[in-house]
Structures are given as C-alpha cells and as structure tokens.
C-alpha cells in the first residue's frame, strides 16, 4: 500500500474515467499529486475535468491531432491528446 504518489501516468485506451472513479478514495485522501492522462476520445477530454475539478487543476490540455506548445518545451505533435492535472493546495 502506498501513502503518497507523486504522479500517475495513464494510457488506458478509453478507460480513463473508469480509472479516475476507481481511484476515488486515493483522490479524496489527497494521496496523488498529479495525473498525466493520455486522451483517446474527445469526450474524455471534456469529462475528466468535471470528474477532477473539486480537487485538481487542469494545467496542460493538448487536444488530439494538435500541435501544442508548453512554455519551456519545444512544440509537441499530439496524435492522442493529453492532460496534466495538479492537486490543489500543493
């Protein structure tokens, strides 16, 4: 059993919302600082912020098939989207 996790990176092929729901207790206990989530369907990029908004801030949101720029990094070509969430109050 883990008491604290710095970052959870997931690429779960359309099960993103299920994973977040399954981690509900760990999320409520503030055990996970960051989530880095590969997004395979656009509907998940809209649903995940709703699921996580009480305890996490969305800090990077690169849509599928986009050329994204994140400050301090070179441009990124995304075939899948990804989102990075940071736990509030850390």
Kindly estimate the percentage of residues that lie in beta strands according to DSSP: 35-45%
Order of helices and strands: EHHEHEEEE
CATH topology: Translation Initiation Factor IF3
Structural class: alpha+beta
Uncertain spans:
none
Secondary structure layout plus pairing:
Blueprint: E1 5-10, H1 16-22, H2 24-28, E2 32-39, H3 42-52, E3 56-62, E4 66-68, E5 76-78, E6 81-87
Parallel strand pairs: 1-2
Antiparallel strand pairs: 2-6, 3-6, 4-5
Helix pairs in contact: 1-3
Could you provide a short overview of the structure?
This is Methyltransferase FkbM domain-containing protein. This protein has 90 residues and is an alpha+beta fold.
Structure description:
- This protein has a single domain (5-87), classed as Translation Initiation Factor IF3.
- Helices cover 26% and strands 38% of the residues.
- It contains 3 helices and 6 strands, in the order E-H-H-E-H-E-E-E-E.
- The strands form 2 sheets. A 4-stranded mixed beta sheet has the order 1-2-6-3. A two-stranded antiparallel sheet has the order 4-5.
- Strand 4 (66-68) and strand 5 (76-78) form a beta hairpin.
- This is Methyltransferase FkbM domain-containing protein.
- It comes from marine sediment metagenome.
Key phrases:
90 residues; Translation Initiation Factor IF3; two-stranded antiparallel ribbon; 26% helix; SAM-dependent_MTases_sf; Methyltransferase FkbM domain-containing protein
């Amino acid at each position: 059993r883990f008491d604290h996790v710095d970052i959870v990176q997931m690429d779960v092929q359309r099960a993103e919302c299920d994973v977040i729901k399954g981690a509900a207790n760990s999320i409520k206990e503030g055990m996970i600082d960051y989530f880095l989530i590969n997004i395979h369907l656009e509907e998940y990029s809209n649903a995940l912020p709703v699921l996580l908004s009480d305890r996490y801030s969305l800090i990077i949101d690169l849509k599928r098939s986009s050329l994204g720029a994140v400050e301090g990094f070179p441009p990124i070509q995304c075939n899948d989207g990804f989102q990075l969430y940071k736990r509030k109050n850390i």
